[in-house]
Structures are given as C-alpha cells and as structure tokens.
C-alpha cells in the first residue's frame, strides 16, 4: 500500500475538474489523510487545458509532487501534456474510446456507466475505489456538495459513484495505488485554500469594508466575504477599477471601518497613488496581493513571487509599511489578523503577499482556535488631552491620536498635502521635516513587532535553504529528503519579509557552510533584500518562473546540478 499518492485530473475548462478535485480532496481529509491540492487553469471560460492534482498521504503532506501516480484524462490532449510527469508505475484512466490499442491505458466505459454530464463523478468513483476510500463516505461527500442545490441532482451523483465502484470492483484494476490506512482515527479537519483562510481571518478580526476590482487570484476573498455580509454587517463593494477600490477602502477606514482591498500585481499598479495617500494621511489599510507572472497581464492564472520589490518600493515619497508572506492556510489566517491589528496600531498600510499557488491550493487544516481572539476597535487606544485636537501630533513613537469623525466633539481633519499637527495644509519646510521624521519613527514600532523567521534543523548545517511565502512546504520537504541522504540541511522560512531584523537570522546564515535562497522569481528578489539589509550575499539561488509552483523534486534537481555531486546529493 502507498503512503502517498498523487492523483491528477486533466481536461478542458468546463469538464468539471474543479468539482471532482474538491470532492476528492474533502473525502480524503474526512478519511484522515493529509493533502495538498493544486489547480492549474488557463484564462478562458471554456476550452484550454486545465488540471487539478491532489497529493495525499498518511503523514503530513506540505507540497505538491511533479510525478503523477494516477492520471485521469478527460481528453486526448491530457495524455500528451502530462506525458513527462508519468512513471513506469503510473495508472492512466481514459474513456475507452481513447484507449485504442495502448495496453498502458485503463479504458472506462463512461457511456455505459452514466450520462455524459456525470462522467467526472464516475471518474471520481473509480479513483475512490483505486485509493481504497470508503464508498459511503464518498457518496456522503458528494451529497453534501449537491443536496442544498437539488436533492434529485445529489441522488443522481450518488448513483454515479455507486455504479463506478461496482464497475471497478469487477474490472480487475491494479491495486498498487491503494492508500495505507491512516495511523490514527481521523480527527475533524477543514479543507480550505489560502484565500479561504484570509477571508476567515478578516472575518474573525472584524473587517467591516472590503472593496475590489475582480482580479485573479484574490477575487474569491471578497466574493466569499459577500456571502456573510448581511449576518456580519460588512460592506463588500466591487468598484469600477482599482483606483476607486483603494480610495473607497481608505474612506471607509478614515470613518472607522476596518478595511481591506484585494488585488494582484497589475491591479495594485493602479492603486499605488492611493497607497501614498494612506502613507500621508496615516490611514490604516490592509492590502491582499496575490502574485501571478508579469509583466503586464503575463500569465494571469499561474503563480510567481515576483512582486516583492514592487510592493516594498511602491508609492512616491517615504513612509512605513509592513509585508507579510504566509506559507500555509494557518499562516494566512493568523497573519491576516495581525495585519489588521498592526495597520491600526501604527496607522500604516500592511500587505499580505500571497500567490496563485497558495491562494488556490487546498490543504487539510486543523480548525482554528477562535477563543479569546481580539477583534478590531478603531481609535479605541487614542487618548486626547490637548485642545484643539491634533490628528498628526508630533510624538516620540510617531503614532498620533486617531479619533473617528463624528464620534466626538473634536474636529477630525486630514489632508493629502503636507500638513500641520492639526491636519491643515502647510508649506512650512521645518514642519515638513518634522512630519517626515514622525512618520518614519513608526518603523521602530513595526520592527518591535517583527515575526522572526522559522528555522528548522541543526546548528552549523552543511546547507541552509532560505525561502519566503508559499515555497515553505516544498523547501522543508526537500530538506527532509537531503537529511535522509546524509546532507546536514536546515531551513529558514520568512513569513514576514518587511521590515527585517537581521539579529533574528544573520547568525544562522553565517554559521551555515552553504546558503541557498529558493524563490519563485527570476532575479532572487528576497536574496537581494537580505544583502541590502545585512551585507550578506547569498550567491546561490534556486529560482522558478515558468508559472508552476516550486516542488521538492524541483529543488533537489537544481541542487544536484548546482553541486554536481559536491556534497553527495
């Protein structure tokens, strides 16, 4: 029996790949398995090749896998597109009309088993049988998906699963991909994406306003927030463009509503003037940016980590910001909460930097502990002693008292021009200098709240793998593989990439015999930031920028080429 199995569904957009992928993911998690499920899709409504891959295992799975163990091909193109991912032991399921005389293919009589609209569910049932999943649990998972829409439709889908299992039982299919039973009794877990976790984190912290212009891969965040808008007293606004979106959010935040915007690199390009407005008016705002390959429209439905420098340096003028880069859904949830609290406390923009891979990939997640989680209370900590009220009072911390307009007897004024302490426009150059210093002093507070990188492994390793954001799981699994091969390897994952506190990490880098930075971009942007901030030059980099997520296999292969056997890799 297999400890891990990687199942991939491939076909055209509109053939129901996402539906069966999500159903199989949920059933696997309910059965007690750990998963990472990745989606690959083209930017079109119908046609074009899509795939949905689920890697499942009895132990914790943290990254996707490049080789495919079971390939379900809904069209002929899938066979050629995924040919390089197949191994000698891969099982390939196709419609029997595509089988021809190829003995490597397992032909399925879809037309005999179910109407054409249920082909994907029939394939799901056969895969469930191959993996050894309980049929009743799979049928219940299918019913849960469809019963709220149409009870008759749910029953038809359950019947398709029933017939698929019956056919598979009599078809003498290979048993090589049956998953071993979980070591322990399954505990309740959630199946969610990074976007799901960000949405839940925002809900839990008390978001009251979210504006956006639809842009892959973050659109599902406001869409799902909108489903809870009435019961949670939230306003979700689809703006006419990204410029309006960020300015709407700033207006809501100024009025006292914890606010966020969601976008991607191309959309954020239009928001940059609004970002500077937030810096000058010292208005809290959370910006969720899901990265995808650029420049321009680039590959709008693929993944990359190439917007870090853009986000770090965006905006005219100088003002503080913080940038989080979660690597798991759990980090998405808790860092979203931290982003809102940090934005409020230091009255600055805070970024949550994700990417298409993390945004769209499903994981098994232990339910969040939501007891004693503090919600937002805008302006609650502001204490005003002097009259008249000075919104931008010069303070030692750089943080000025923030009152909300209309909720006190004080006049609340803000200006996008340089201003005096009471918020009125000024061209006094002495005041200008004082205000710049005041705003930048907030960096000291932001630095005091920096989250140190997560370091795993032994001291003074032969090899240290440095990464940030979504590459966490692949890097950690690659390190496990190398340690098993006798290469003393440690990892350093940054879930906050700005500001940086060198004392948190530079000593570990200096102790390592070799440091390699792993990033999904072409130029090694984060390695460059580390050098800029510390002087430490990471001369070895593993980069990926073909639109696909980093995998453990990819890292190990690159290291082997890099070292040419120098450390026995």
What's the quick description here?
Helices cover 38% and strands 20% of the residues.
What Rg, in angstroms, do the CA atoms define? 26 Å
Q: How does CATH name the architecture of the largest domain?
A: 3-Layer(aba) Sandwich
| Tally of DSSP β-strands | 20
- Catalogue the unreliable spans: none
- Strand arrangement within the widest β-sheet reads 6-5-4-1-3-2-14-7
Helix content, binned percent: 25-40%
How far apart the termini lie comes to 28 Å
- Biggest sheet descriptor: 8 strands, mixed
> Structural class of the secondary structure composition?
alpha/beta
Shape: globular
CATH H-level superfamily of the largest domain: Pyruvate-ferredoxin oxidoreductase, PFOR, domain III
Roughly what is the average pLDDT, rounded to an integer?
Answer: 94
Strand content: 15-25%
The CATH class label of the largest domain is Alpha Beta
What is the overall number of helices?
A: 20
Number of domains: 4
């Amino acid at each position: 029996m297999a400890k891990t199995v990687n199942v991939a569904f491939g076909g055209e957009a509109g053939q129901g790949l996402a539906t069966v992928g999500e159903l199989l993911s949920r059933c696997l998690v309910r059965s007690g398995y750990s998963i990472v499920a990745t989606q690959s899709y083209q930017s079109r409504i119908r046609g074009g090749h899509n795939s949905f891959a689920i890697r499942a295992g009895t132990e914790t799975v943290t990254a996707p896998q490049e080789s495919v163990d079971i390939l379900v091909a809904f069209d002929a193109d899938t066979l050629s597109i995924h040919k390089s991912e197949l191994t000698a032991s891969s099982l390939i399921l196709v419609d029997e009309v595509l089988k021809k005389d190829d003995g490597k293919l397992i032909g399925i009589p879809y037309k005999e088993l179910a109407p054409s609209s249920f082909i994907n569910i029939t394939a799901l049932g056969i895969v469930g049988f191959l993996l050894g999943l309980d049929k009743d649990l799979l049928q219940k998972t299918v019913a849960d998906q469809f019963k709220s829409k149409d009870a008759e439709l749910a029953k038809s889908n359950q019947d398709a699963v029933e017939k698929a299992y019956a056919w598979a039982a009599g078809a003498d299919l290979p048993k090589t991909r049956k998953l071993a039973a979980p070591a322990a009794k399954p505990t309740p877990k959630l199946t969610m994406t990074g976007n799901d976790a960000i949405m839940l984190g925002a809900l839990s912290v008390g978001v009251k306003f979210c504006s956006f212009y639809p842009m892959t891969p973050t659109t599902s965040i406001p869409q799902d927030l909108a489903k809870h808008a009435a019961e949670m007293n939230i306003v979700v606004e689809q703006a006419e463009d990204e410029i309006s979106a960020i300015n709407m959010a700033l207006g809501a935040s100024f009025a006292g509503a914890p606010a966020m915007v969601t976008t991607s690199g191309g959309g954020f390009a239009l928001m940059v003037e609004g970002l500077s407005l937030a810096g000058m008016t010292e208005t809290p705002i959370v910006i969720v940016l899901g990265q995808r390959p650029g420049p321009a429209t680039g590959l709008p439905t693929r993944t990359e980590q190439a917007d870090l420098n853009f986000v770090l340096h965006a905006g005219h003028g100088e003002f503080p910001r913080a940038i989080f880069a979660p690597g798991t859904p759990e980090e998405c949830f808790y860092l979203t909460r931290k982003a809102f609290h940090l934005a409020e406390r230091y009255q600055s923009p805070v970024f949550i930097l994700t990417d298409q891979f993390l945004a769209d990939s499903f994981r098994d997640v232990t339910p969040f502990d939501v007891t004693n989680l503090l919600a937002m209370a805008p302006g609650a900590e502001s204490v005003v002693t002097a009259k008249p009220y000075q919104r931008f009072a010069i303070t030692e911390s750089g943080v000025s008292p923030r009152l909300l307009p209309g909720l006190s007897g004080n006049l609340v004024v803000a200006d996008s021009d340089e201003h005096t302490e009471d918020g009125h426009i000024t061209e006094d150059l002495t005041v200008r200098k004082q205000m710049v210093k005041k705003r930048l002093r907030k960096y000291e507070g932001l630095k005091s709240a920096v989250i140190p990188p997560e370091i795993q492994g032994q001291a003074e390793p032969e090899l240290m793998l440095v990464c940030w954001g979504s590459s966490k799981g692949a890097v950690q699994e690659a390190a496990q593989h190398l340690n098993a091969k006798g290469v003393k390897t440690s990892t350093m994952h940054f879930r906050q990439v700005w500001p940086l506190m060198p004392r948190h990490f530079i000593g570990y880098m200096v102790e390592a015999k070799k440091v390699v930075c792993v990033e999904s971009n072409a130029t090694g942007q984060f390695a460059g930031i580390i050098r800029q901030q510390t002087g430490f030059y990471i001369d070895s980099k593993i980069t990926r920028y073909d639109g696909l997520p980093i995998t453990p296999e990819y890292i190990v292969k690159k290291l082997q080429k890099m070292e040419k056997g120098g450390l026995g890799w």
